[in-house]
Each structure stands twice: as structure tokens, then as C-alpha cells.
Amino acid sequence: MPLHSSPVHHPLFARFYMRTGPILDRRAGMAAHRRELLAGLSGRVIEIGAGQGLNFPHYPDAVSEVVAVEPERLLRRQAAQAAVRCGVPVDVVPAVAEALPVKSEAFDAAVVSLVLCSVRDVPRALAELRRVLRPGGELRFFEHGAAEGGVLPLVQRALDRTVWPPLFGGCHTARDPLAAIGAAGFTLGAWRRLSVPEGPVRLPTSPCVTGVAVRTP
């Protein structure tokens, strides 16, 4: 079976994330970041790596449909339950980011939220997103990635070579989402760096970047 169509199953991490994700939303301000990420969206939206559907309550009413892609079956089951309670139509589908089962140029916007860290092939996943977006369509992103300065970058690279990916569902802490998005043919718009959670204690996943990019013709 080709790598990009093989099943994704991380049951221990999925259960861990189902518990910690809502805590981060309440205590680390992630709910507010999700609202900011999705504000102003309209039309058809595809979300990659939807997890258990924590973004769903924050989609504005102007969104006519969300196709939410989630390959991990435990998280997908939770997402399907969250979709029923959502104020906009959400269709949760099993697929991987590198092989999206949708038509080209079919969406007005795409959303990636804490997912580029764990996809198996970042360039191919972003190429797929570019394929399914209409020209001028927006890519909204909220991703953690490589730290700048100090010892944390060294720690991130060491973790990525050893224990972090197998423990946390394939997650890599030292990827550069901004560089990857730019290299995939998107034009970066407004973006900013932030730390989640805020404060003096920085986790390997604390350095984040959020913003918007546009699919050029």
C-alpha cells in the first residue's frame, strides 16, 4: 500500500489529545486563537487534520460547508459527533492530507491547525491544498514549529530525532511551516508569531505562527 494512502492509527496519542485539547482551549487561550483563525471565512472550506473537531464551533455562519479531513479513526469518531452539534454543515471524511478525495479548485478556503507538524509529506500535503483551492483562495494556518534563538531549537531537533514523533502521533517540533507554505506556491499575507501557552515556561511545541496565505494562480 502506498505510504500516503496507508492507515493512520495512533490510539494512545488520540486518547491523550482528546483529553488535553479541550484543556488547552480553556486554559491556554486556544479557543480564542481558533476564533481568530476562522473569522471572516465564507463559502466552502476544507479543514485538514480536524482532530476531534475543536474548530467546528468557531466557523462563522457565512461558511456554507466544511469538509473536515481526519485520518485517525478515534479522533474522526469524535469529530463526527462534534459535527452534529455544529452550526454550519460539516462533513467528516477519512483521508490523509497527501491524497485528498476532492475535486480541484473546489474550495474557497482551507484550514490547517496544528497539523503540518505530523503529516508524513509536508510538500505533498500543501500541494494538495493548493490543488483543491480556487485561485485566490485563502489558506488559514495556526501551526507550531521551530523556535528562534536560545537552546530550545537544539532541544527540538534532538526530540525530533528520538522520542517525540513516536510518542505524539508523528508530531515534529522543529519544522518550519512558514517556509513550507511559501515554497508550496502560496503568497503569505498577514501573520504573527506567538507562544502557547504564554508565559516564561516554553514547551517544545510552544513557538507558534498563525496567519493567512493566498493560493496564487
Produce a short descriptive summary:
The chain is α/β, with parallel strands linked by helices and 217 residues long. 32% of the residues lie in helices and 25% in strands. The radius of gyration is 16 Å and the shape is globular.
Sequence-ordered SSE layout with sheet pairings:
Layout: H1 11-27, H2 30-38, E1 43-48, E2 63-69, H3 73-84, E3 90-93, E4 107-113, H4 122-132, E5 133-144, H5 152-161, H6 164-167, H7 177-183, E6 186-195, E7 207-215
Parallel strand pairs: 1-2, 1-4, 2-3, 4-5
Antiparallel strand pairs: 5-7, 6-7
Helix pairs in contact: 1-3
Listing every helix as H and every strand as E from the N terminus to the C terminus, the arrangement reads: HHEEHEEHEHHHEE
Number of helices: 7
CATH hierarchy: architecture: 3-Layer(aba) Sandwich
The strand order across the widest sheet is 3-2-1-4-5-7-6
Number of domains: 1
The count of strands amounts to: 7
pLDDT < 50 runs, ≥5 residues: none
* Average pLDDT metric: 94
